[in-house]
Design a protein that fits this description.
Blueprint: H1 8-38, H2 53-62, H3 69-86, H4 88-94, H5 100-118, H6 122-130, H7 157-168, E1 174-178, E2 184-189, E3 193-198, H8 205-223, H9 230-241, H10 250-269, H11 284-288, H12 293-307, H13 312-329
Parallel strand pairs: 1-3
Antiparallel strand pairs: 2-3
Length: 334
């Protein structure tokens, strides 16, 4: 951002070198990350190259060349958050005990890095990369009774995936690992390899939703080659997770409440709502996943459009092209 355009060939050669090294290092890292998560141990550090300021610089310079803009944007989505989070002041603030006072210090540290690297606050940078706009905020709904209670309706995650793969024409295999942790998807190679960690039992609406949500991430990332912007990735996950609403009608109300909570947390992130009016301490997502709340809200509107599509693969490609065009031409590229 703010740098003079440079030689196309020079940037392309730099991109080639970075992409080749990351292609060799990232899949191994993601597999190790998934293994550590399933075992409830500390994850390995991301490859050093992914979080270097020089990597961000190459990605930003690529954005000014139409021939390289899609590659530059994909690299920036990977590198920009890591550059911000690896900064010494950010790491120190993130290591403090979470409170709303320390959260303010953490966000100030993130903003300082983002202003220096991108010329704007961290939240603006991340939201542009995620493909999200500022959400409208509605009144908060009450909790949903029975959402986390065992209702005797089980979910076979392997069978659920087989049905999803058949429905959407996915031929790439999915690795499913069963462990006593919250469900989580790991994109090893976009469009080719995804690993999902799921619990051995899913007998409450909340747990079935969580499993289907992560399987939805696998659907999106195996249907389309290349990385997905966060809002679109979450939209596919939401679309697939809506299947739980066929057996648990309360899931519809739970979805509305989640969306409203995400909108309110987005207000907290932009300083328009006191954090302690939402939760006594900062939720994990605000502390470790900044800028994502608006993406969750945007995802629901995108999921509504995807639900009406007859060809999910084609609809995803269309949505991604629109998001990428806005991101490359807007906040990220200036």
């Amino acid at each position: 951002m703010g740098e003079a355009p440079c030689n196309l060939l020079e940037v392309e050669m730099a991109l080639d070198r970075i992409e080749a090294q990351l292609a060799a290092e990232l899949p191994q890292h993601m597999r190790a990350f998934a293994t550590a998560y399933a075992a409830s141990i500390a994850p390995p550090a991301a490859p050093d190259l992914a979080g270097r300021a020089s990597t961000v610089s190459v990605a930003k310079r690529a954005l000014v060349h139409p021939e390289l803009a899609d590659r530059g944007l994909a690299l920036l989505r990977l590198a920009a958050p890591l550059v911000i989070e690896r900064d010494g002041a950010v790491a120190t603030a993130r290591g403090m005990t979470p409170s709303w006072a320390t959260y303010a210090a953490l966000m100030a540290a993130r903003d300082a890095v983002a202003q220096a690297r991108f010329g704007r606050p961290s939240r603006e940078v991340l939201m542009a990369l995620h493909g999200a706009a500022e959400p409208d905020v509605a009144e908060m709904r009450a909790g949903v009774d029975g959402w986390r209670h065992d209702d005797g309706i089980g979910l076979d995650s392997d069978a659920a995936w087989s049905a999803l793969a058949l429905r959407h024409g996915i031929t790439a295999p999915l690795a499913i690992v069963h462990a006593a942790v919250r469900p989580r998807a790991f994109v090893v190679v976009p469009g080719q390899e995804v690993l999902v960690v799921v619990p051995t039992r899913a007998t409450s609406p909340a747990t079935r939703f969580a499993v289907l949500h992560e399987l939805g991430h696998a659907v999106g990332n195996l249907l389309v080659a290349g990385t997905l912007p966060r809002a679109l990735d979450e939209a596919v996950a939401s679309l697939v997770a809506r299947d739980v609403e066929t057996t648990s009608p309360i899931a519809t109300a739970a979805r509305a409440r989640r969306t409203q909570l995400a909108a309110r947390l987005a207000m907290v992130e932009r300083g328009e709502l006191a954090g302690d009016s939402v939760a006594p301490t900062p939720p994990w997502a605000l502390w470790h996943d900044p800028g994502a709340q608006a993406a969750y809200v945007a995802a629901e509107a995108i999921a509504d459009r995807l639900a009406a599509a007859t060809d999910l693969r084609a609809a995803l490609a269309t949505e991604r092209a629109q998001i990428d065009r806005r991101a490359a031409m807007g906040t990220v590229s200036t």
